[in-house]
TrEMBL record:
It comes from Caenorhabditis japonica. Residues 1-17 form the signal peptide. This is Lipase_GDSL domain-containing protein. It comes from the Eukaryota. InterPro entries: GDSL (IPR001087), Phospholipase_B (IPR035547), PLB1 (IPR038885), SGNH_hydro_sf (IPR036514).
Length: 373
């Protein structure tokens, strides 16, 4: 059955160009905040966007970008990695917003982002995005080990000691989809311990890393977008059991997602992954996002792939705008709500602290200021 679906979906690949998308044509900032540092920074709190050499990602189907370019539910089996908000490098920023496409404006030699369609074992497509569809938090440590192995193998493109690396992580959808059945095993607290274990593997093996964790999204919005869509409800029965299980109330699903966010934030607050050349930051724009994407006063499916669950390329681009702005906002002052109906205007680094924001440079940036190139 899946082979047949795969063959079918190949036929409709060429259709991606006709789907709606979001670009940021003309995005540019003051020349000074776009330059790299005069000397490669040695401190993690002095890293400018242009200093990032490698982009890497861990996650599930939302980082593998399943269905992002799909026009039909069968094509949701395909991993459109090149369109992924955290890790895709397809098209240009003018046509499709992703974190790598923005970073390429700062450093055209950025490496590690995915291009095209394929699974994580195809290096030419996935590069350093090792996200696996269906992954739960407990699968992240294996992904972290895979990432370390890739960095060690590919010395032709990776300078392990010198290169500054941005690691984007997004996980939790599958955990909450199963949480109502296994509230202990899949508890938000346990999931956060798995995330911690994965980051520990990176911390122990890879120098010069900024870990940017996209906080868990509010799955409750799926219920609102599903209302009246029998087809979506049927699909979600299989894809996300707890979303369609009415015994798991809206209030419970919301609380589970808040708890997930809170335990993720705790990892940052505990400061266990702080080192001169390493940090861990949570980007919370999904946390309080409880309003589904709307169009003409009604929930819209434009944000979603044809399975009404994964993000469309439009959804990936929209999410990227909020994630980028979060990356540039100081810890403690980050936006916790995204308007899923409308992209944000992409920010520029703050001239008074033109770095990827960390806990320490958010508290006092003056200690970390360094000259530009
Ligand atoms: C919901 O709860 C009822 C009563 O406990 C139970 O019979 C039913 O199987 C549950 N439904 C699901 C989908 O778990
Ligand atoms: C979100 O965007 C939509 C579409 O542009 C707009 O109508 C709505 O007012 C926005 N919501 C908020 C809370 O800003």
């Amino acid at each position: 059955m899946w082979q047949r679906i795969f063959a079918l979906s190949c036929v409709i690949l060429y259709a991606i160009a006709t789907l709606p998308d979001i670009g940021a044509p003309g995005y540019s900032c003051d020349a000074n905040v776009m330059k790299k540092s005069k000397k490669v920074p040695t401190n993690v709190n002095s890293v400018r966007p242009a200093d990032i050499k490698l982009i890497m990602a861990l996650g599930d189907s939302l980082t593998a970008a399943n269905g992002a370019g799909a026009e039909d539910p069968v094509a949701v089996v395909l991993q459109y990695r090149g369109l992924a908000f955290q890790a895709g490098g397809d098209k240009t920023l003018d046509e499709h917003v992703t974190i790598p496409n923005i970073l390429k404006k700062y450093n055209p030699n950025l490496f590690g982002y995915s291009n095209g369609i394929g699974s994580p074992n195809v290096w030419e497509i996935s590069r350093l995005n090792v996200a696996v569809p269906g992954a739960n938090a407990k699968d992240l440590p294996a992904q972290a080990r895979q990432l370390v192995a890739l960095l060690q193998q590919h010395t032709e493109v990776v300078n392990m000691k010198e290169d500054w690396k941005l690691l984007n992580i997004f996980i939790g959808g599958n955990d909450i989809c199963g949480y109502c059945r296994k509230p202990v095993d899949d508890s938000p607290y346990n999931c956060a311990q798995d995330i911690k274990q994965a980051v520990q593997i990176i911390f122990d093996n890879v120098p010069r890393v900024i870990v940017s964790l996209t906080g868990m999204l509010q799955l409750e919005i799926l219920r609102e977008t599903d209302t009246g869509h029998y087809f979506c409800q049927r699909l979600h029965h299989d894809e996300c059991g707890c979303e369609s299980n009415k015994n798991f109330t809206d209030a419970e699903i919301r609380q589970a997602c808040y708890d997930y966010n809170a335990y993720e934030k705790q990892i940052e607050t505990d400061g266990v992954f702080e080192r001169d050349d390493f940090t861990f930051v949570v980007q919370p724009f999904f946390r309080d996002t409880l309003t589904p994407p709307m169009e003409n006063g009604k929930p819209t499916q434009k944000f979603f792939a044809p399975d009404c669950f994964h993000f469309s390329q439009w959804g990936h681009a929209l999410v990227s705008t909020y994630l980028w702005n979060n990356i540039l906002q100081p810890v403690g002052l980050k936006n916790t709500i995204a308007n899923l109906s409308e992209p944000a205007t992409l920010s520029c680094p703050d001239a008074t602290c033109p770095f990827i924001r960390t806990t320490k440079n958010s508290a006092d940036c003056s200690k970390y200021l360094t000259p530009v190139d």
